[in-house]
Amino acid sequence: MHDLPPDLPRLRTLETWLVLTLDRVRQQIADAERREQERQRGEQARPPAPDWLLEMGLNRDSPPNMIHVGGCHMAGKRSRGIGRADALRWLAEGVVACTHCRPDSELGYLGG
Question: Where are the domains of the chain?
């Protein structure tokens, strides 16, 4: 049993189709490799996550409303990174500590 056509014209047509298909597959592979390299470069160039987050109020005049440990899943989109000293200062000024990530415990803050 033969799975290829027996005559030369159809074999040449099949060969042309296979070459074109192989070129498309190789181009897709090259594109996928390029995207993967770009993704890896992006991960390597990403700055480290902040250690502490200050979650701001609903508008620009509202005071901050919560402190989080960096990477807390409860931190909202209005959060910005702050340093340890600022986190301690905001806690001392009465900004609430997140009850999920407990930044006050992580900071060793005993005030209330």
Answer: 1-46, 52-107
